[in-house]
Please model this.
Amino acid sequence: MPTHNDDLTSPLYAACYTAIVDCPSVEEAGHVLRDHYGLDHATYHHGQTVGDVDSFYVRSTYSDTWVARYIRRGYIRVDPVVCEGFARQLPFDWREVTLTPEAHDFMADAQAFGLGGSGYSIPLIDKNVRRALFSINSRMPLDEWDDFIRKHATDLAELAGRIPRKAIAEIYGDTDPLPQLDPRAIECLTWAARGKEYKAIAAILGISDTTVRDYLTTARLKLDSATIAQAVAKAISLRLIKL
Model:
């Protein structure tokens, strides 16, 4: 059961939470959230897939025709919501994004396929620094839209947070190829990748040399690597760390 606001959990949130948890697929989860909250569409983008780190997994309530067109035309490279969303940390209204000339053309095409005028996106980042983006949009008038987001922003963020697990299962099956690394281990790997020795990393992070060594050893073993250098290289290839 959801823990959102304890006894203050709204019936709408509780019903949607349960339905999303019970959904067998990401696409159906998007339909559930859209329908419960009276939206036009919901879309989930999952980036950094293992095996082809530049590929993106997309599930949406848009028509199959539009999704196929989006992928075929490479719109993911000019979609301003995706381009900015995968670099952001916090939820944002689509009015905040910068529109390039290519983005204007894309948005015009998208609106012809049912894109609502108002949109909101929630960046999602898991323990392995794997990124995803959940977006909703609607044709509500702007004043109603702003009220809707103020009222439901927390609910939407928590509900969106239930979806990445389903995406991982759909992409990889029962075995997630990315090891579960402690955030501190990822920090240590990042500094090691930048050429820092144990003592320097310890000073930067405010922990002991021994603790740094333990974190790096654990990361090395989880990454099936013989050396720290190999672990760093593998972590970079899996996009667990960025230089």
